[in-house]
């Protein structure tokens, strides 16, 4: 009796020891900083950086275009930049999806070593430094870059094309760095696709397009949605890609946050913008989790 | 029929063809840097003039005076050794600490029943889904507010907060696929939890632990965004050095540096991925 009691107590103690480091680390260096950031977004910016501890909702007001003083007019420029960021992130999601979906089928029908090799090759670029991957596209797209030089020497164009510093170049760069994020969840789903259902649909007289739309697409939807969420999140907040491939022409919310922290030193405003991104992410993730749990319930029923 | 269509030679060829296009998209841009890094042309990298290994030497100040990093960037070659050293210290420390914490957490969640387990699973996903930039500025505000001096130390702490989750995922997968009967036998024979862990669990999950460590090491070594905000003066890492180089204009030395960094990360990541894929 007492033996079992000691055993239980020992087990509890071990569990506490195992969980304590993570709990402390996440609490102190993750949750508290995020909390402070949220508080900062409601404080007044100090004159020379830092904050004044006054209630100040105008950081959010500025985002939606509220004029700060008599000299300013209502101009929702930050909101426009945010919407442009959302648009770029959505295009990135669509682009990575179009690239990865057929590739997932290609890999899923391979066997043995070949399959492992293909998976390995697709995962590996994830570990290549993000800057270097962006740099590669800088080399490809700039006026004296690879594409323009090739097109010019082929005589197809006279003046170099403006490939760089456009929404297009930013989206291409984003697609390039985020492709592995889209591939893996889609692949995990396509891999498990039950081909007997595909066959049943065909036997019942559906044509290829109908089978795809009514059977294959719904069956692989969880992977697609998962991939879309985890591509959208880093795309929305990214500031490295637009700062190199977008130049001063393409601004994203990430650039605004960077500048308000490291240049204009208006931390509360940057914190408010970061919270706007966080809120978008939280809404998306909640949506994804509720969808998943509903799907699981259906699976049990 | 559709699966028959998919199996038909034409479709198979189409899929295979597309597969190679997909891989080409992933690797050709990086291959271009590799080719450029041996091109002697300083005016337009896209036009091949002749083969040279000059850029690889000039990064370390070993090339001709004219092409050395000094003249290109007003930056002494000693700087590069310094930033590589910084990156190595950060990546080793951050990967080690996050491997210890991540493994302990994985064991707790895989081997124990307790209230709030789902809550912990949620907490573990959190650092992976919060955008880098948000975590970066939150840490900056926190460190400055709490009076931490921005240094290699703050970078290490920042990296550990998100690397732990990656290690957790890798080690958990290994633990989940492991036979628990040996652990039970060890406990039945009177071994305490620590002895069981050291003698039975750890040897079995070792490939997962090392794999997790290597992946954490590479992610830390590559991190730009979070480091960018919490590095402070005098704690520049290699990616921040490359970032600064890229901002000052494109020079052939960047190609050579990029190729060396890519080669290193690919080798370490390949070993990490291999260890992760090992079956128990």
Secondary-structure blueprint:
The complex is a heterodimer of chains A (301) and B (280).
Chain A: H1 2-40, E1 43-45, E2 51-55, H2 58-63, H3 77-108, H4 112-123, H5 130-141, H6 146-153, H7 167-191, H8 195-203, H9 208-237, H10 240-246, H11 253-262, H12 267-300
Chain B: H1 2-7, H2 9-36, H3 54-58, H4 69-73, H5 77-111, H6 117-129, H7 132-145, H8 152-176, H9 181-188, H10 193-222, H11 225-230, H12 238-247, H13 252-277
Please provide a written account of the structure:
The complex is a heterodimer of chains A (about 300) and B (about 280). Chain A is mostly helical. Chain A has helices at about 1-40, 60-65, 75-110, 110-125, 130-140, 145-155, 165-190, 195-205, 210-235, 240-245, 255-260, 265-300; strands spanning about 45, 50-55. Chain A has a two-stranded antiparallel ribbon with strand order 1-2. In chain A, a hairpin with a 5-residue loop joins strand 1 and strand 2. Chain A is globular. The two termini of chain A are about 40 Å apart. Chain B folds into two domains: about 1-75, no CATH class; about 80-275, MetI-like (MetI-like fold), CATH 1.10.3720.10. Helix content of chain B is about 75%, strand content about 0%. Chain B has helices at about 1-5, 10-35, 55-60, 70-75, 75-110, 115-130, 130-145, 150-175, 180-190, 195-220, 225-230, 240-245, 250-275. The longest helix of chain B is centred in the middle third of the chain and has 35 residues, at about 75-110. At the A-B interface, helix 1, helix 3, helix 4, helix 5 and helix 6 of A face helix 1, helix 2, helix 5, helix 6 and helix 7 of B.
């Amino acid at each position: 009796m007492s033996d079992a009691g000691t055993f239980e107590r020992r087990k509890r103690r071990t569990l506490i020891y195992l969980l304590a480091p993570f709990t402390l680390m996440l609490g102190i260096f993750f949750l508290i900083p995020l909390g402070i950031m949220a508080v900062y977004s409601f404080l007044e910016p100090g004159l020379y950086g830092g904050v004044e501890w006054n209630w100040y909702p105008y950081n959010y007001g500025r985002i939606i275009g509220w004029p700060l003083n008599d000299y300013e007019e209502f101009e929702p420029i930050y909101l426009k930049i945010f919407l442009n960021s959302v648009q770029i992130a959505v295009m990135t999601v669509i682009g990575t999806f179009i690239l990865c979906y057929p590739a997932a089928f290609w890999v899923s029908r391979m066997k043995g070593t070949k399959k492992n090799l293909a998976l390995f090759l697709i995962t590996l670029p994830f570990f290549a430094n993000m800057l270097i991957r962006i740099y590669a596209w800088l080399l490809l797209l700039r006026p004296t870059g690879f594409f323009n030089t090739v097109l010019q020497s082929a005589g197809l164009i006279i003046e170099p094309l403006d490939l760089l510093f456009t929404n297009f170049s930013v989206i291409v760069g984003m697609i390039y760095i985020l492709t592995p994020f889209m591939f893996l969840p889609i692949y995990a789903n396509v891999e498990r696709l039950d081909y007997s259902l595909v066959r049943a649909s065909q036997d019942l007289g559906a044509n290829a397009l109908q089978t795809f739309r009514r059977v294959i697409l719904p069956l692989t939807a969880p992977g697609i949605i998962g991939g879309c969420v985890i591509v959208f999140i880093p795309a929305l907040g990214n500031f490295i890609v637009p700062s190199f491939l977008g130049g001063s022409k393409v601004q994203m919310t990430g650039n605004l946050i960077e500048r308000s922290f490291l240049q204009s030193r208006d931390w509360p405003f940057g914190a408010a913008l970061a919270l706007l991104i966080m809120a978008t992410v939280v809404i998306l993730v909640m949506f994804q989790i509720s969808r998943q749990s509903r799907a699981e319930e259906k699976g049990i029923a | 029929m559709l699966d028959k269509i998919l199996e038909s030679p034409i479709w198979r060829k189409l899929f295979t063809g597309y597969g190679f296009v997909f891989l080409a998209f992933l690797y050709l841009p990086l291959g271009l840097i590799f080719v450029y890094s041996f091109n002697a042309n300083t005016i337009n990298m896209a036009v091949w003039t002749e083969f040279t290994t000059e850029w690889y030497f000039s990064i370390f100040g070993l090339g001709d005076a004219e092409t050395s990093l000094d003249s290109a960037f007003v930056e002494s070659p000693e700087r590069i050794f310094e930033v590589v050293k910084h990156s190595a210290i950060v990546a080793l420390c951050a990967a080690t600490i996050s491997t210890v914490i991540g493994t302990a957490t994985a064991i707790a969640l895989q081997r124990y029943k307790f209230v709030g387990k789902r809550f912990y699973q949620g907490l573990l996903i959190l650092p992976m889904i919060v955008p880098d930039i948000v975590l970066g500025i939150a840490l900056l505000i926190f460190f400055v507010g709490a009076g931490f001096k921005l240094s290699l130390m703050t970078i290490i702490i920042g990296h550990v907060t998100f690397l732990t989750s990656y290690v957790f995922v890798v080690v958990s997968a290994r633990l989940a696929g492991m036979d628990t009967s040996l652990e039970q036998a060890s406990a039945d024979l009177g071994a305490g939890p620590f002895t069981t862990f050291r003698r039975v669990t750890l040897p079995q999950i070792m490939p997962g632990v090392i794999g997790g460590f290597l992946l954490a090491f590479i992610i830390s070594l590559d991190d730009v965004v979070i480091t960018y905000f919490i590095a402070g003066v005098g704690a520049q890492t290699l990616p921040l050095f490359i970032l600064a180089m890229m901002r000052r204009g494109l020079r052939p030395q960047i190609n050579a540096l990029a190729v060396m960094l890519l080669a290193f990360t690919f080798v370490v990541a390949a070993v990490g991925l291999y260890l992760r894929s090992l079956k128990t």
